[in-house]
Amino acid sequence: MPKQFKPLATVTAWTLFIFGWLFGLGNLVVAINTGILFTVGTKGWAETLGYFCLAIVCLILSVVVMRLRQKME
Predict the structure, then answer these.
(1) Cβ atoms of 38 and 55 closer than 8 Å
(2) Residue 1's pLDDT is what?
(3) Residue 41, pLDDT score
(4) Contact, 24 vs 55, CB < 8 A?
(5) Secondary structure of the chain as H, E, C letters
(6) Greatest CA separation found in the chain?
(7) Is 62 exposed, middle or buried (0-12, 13-18, 19+ CB in 10 A)?
């Protein structure tokens, strides 16, 4: 494999990891401040759920990329 793939995988894994945490924590702060997190049936719950799912997907993809990077060694 060319030597460019390992640094590219490292940057991609860290980027996904950081974005996953930013989406998750940022969404949590906004959901608590607006009251969406603690009330049922309020407007905006679908967006909150969507951003939580996006955060989880980013974190899972970062783990997948890290595992692929380990296999490149």
Answers:
(1) no
(2) 65
(3) 72
(4) yes
(5) CCCCHHHHHHHHHHHHHHHHHHHHHHHHHHHHHHCCCCCCCCCCHHHHHHHHHHHHHHHHHHHHHHHHHHHHC
(6) 52
(7) buried
Angle formed by the axes of helices 45-72 and 5-34, to 10°? 160
CA atoms within 13 A on the CB side of 19: 15
Amino acid residing at 43:
K
Residues of the chain whose pLDDT is less than 50? none
Residues 6+ apart with CB under 8 A from 56: 20, 24
Q: Are 10 and 70 in contact (CB under 8 A)?
A: no
